[in-house]
Amino acid sequence: MQILHPILRLLRRPGVAASHHPMHRVSSTSRPALTFMASTPPCLSTPTLVRRVLPFILAPNPPVRCLSQQYVFLILMLTFAPLVRCYNFGSWIAAKDPGDVIPMELEKLAKGRHSDGSIYRASHSWKRYYKVADRNETGLPDPTDCVFYNGTCIRHIPTRLLQIFSLKLAELSGNLGSVELYGYVAVRDHMDPLLNYLVNISRNDPIIVKQGSLINMTGPKRGIDLYGTALVEYDMRCKTTCGDLQLIDGISAIDDLWGTWNRAFTKRIYGDCGSVDITVSRIDDAVQATIEVVISEVQSSFNLCLACFIGGYNDEEIRLFNGAIHESRGLKRSVVAAVDGSTMNLKLKVASESSSTDEHCCSFKADTHGFATEEIKTNFGLISVKVNWSTLLSS
Prior knowledge:
- There is one protein chain.
- The chain has helices at residues 4-12, 46-58, 64-84, 118-121, 125-129; strands at residues 25-28, 107-109, 148-149, 152-153, 159-172, 179-188, 196-201, 207-209, 224-225, 229-239, 245-255, 264-270, 274-296, 302-310, 318-325, 329-330, 334-339, 343-351, 358-365, 371-377, 382-390.
- By secondary structure, the protein is mainly beta.
- It folds into two domains: 107-284, Immunoglobulin-like (Sandwich); 287-390, Immunoglobulin-like (Sandwich).
- A hairpin with a 2-residue loop joins strand 3 (148-149) and strand 4.
- Helix 2 runs antiparallel to helix 3.
- The radius of gyration is 22 Å and the shape is globular.
C-alpha cells in the first residue's frame, strides 16, 4: 500500500512537485464521529472508471493529457485492486466488508494562531503552497472549454468534491448564554488555494447565537476540490463588553486518502471558549449546482426558509436562507455538490405572523451541464428558482 500512495499523488494532480517539507499533522481536533449516515457504497468502481475513460479513447481528437492520466490510472487500478480487495481508491482502505464505515479525519495542522499572527510566520512548505498568508478570495470561474463527442462533453466530467452541510455552535464555556459571534470559516483547495468562505462575519455586524445554534453559511462561492488535501481555516470570536473571546482559531486538513466516501460525518473543532461542529461529506462522481433564487411580485412581508437536500443525504439539511422578505429581491447565490445523476430537492417554507406555514418543494436532476428553472406561486409573492449545473475540473 505504501508503494501505491506516491503513484496516486502523482497521477491526480499533475505539475505539483514533491516537497522535502511535507505537511505535518501534529494533533487531532476530532474525537469519535458524532454522527454518520449509511448510504450507498463508494461509487468509484471499475465500471465507473471505464465509463469515464472510454469516451477519451473513442474521440477522434482526444485531449492527450487527460487520456494518458486516466488510462494509466485505470491500468493501475485493475492491476492492484485485487490485492487490496477494495475498489475505493479515494480512501485506499482494504475493507474486509463492503459495509465497513471508516470515519473521516479532520486533523489540526502545525500550531499557530491568526490572532497573534504566528500562523503566518512558520516556513512550512504547505503554507506556501496553499498561500496561507494571502487573504484574497477565490475567483475561479465555471469551465467553458467544452469538447463534445456524440453530443456529450468529454472534457468536463464528474469529479471529487467536498460538501459542507452545516456549522453549529456546539459548546460555550462558562455561562455565556447568547453571544455575538463574528469571524470566518473558509476552505482552501488545490484548484485555487485562495479563501473560499463558508462564513465571513464582520465584527461590526455580528450574529446572535447560543449553544446549539446553527451558524448560517454564506458559501462556498464554488465547489470544493478534493483531489488531494483541502484545508479548513477558521478564526471565530465572541464579542463581549469585557473583551473579545477566541472561539476557534487554526487550520485543519481533510484528505482524500483515508475514510469512507459518500457518507456524512460530524467532526468537532475545539477552541479556547467553546467548540464548533462541522458536518461534511466527501462526494465522489460529483457535479456542482449553482442555485439562484429571485422573489418578485411581493404582496406583503413574509418569512422564508430555503433548504437543500442532495440525493443520498435525505436527513442532512443544507440551509441556504432563513429570514424575512419585505420586498422583491434576489437571494445570495448558493453552490452545492451532488452525485451526477442524483436528485436534488429544494424545500421552501413560507409564513407570516398571521398565517400558517406553507411548504413547497421542487426537484432537479444533477448533470454535468445545463440548467433548469421552477416558479412557485405563493400568497406572498412569486419565487423563481434557477439551477445551473457544471463541473469543477477542466481536464
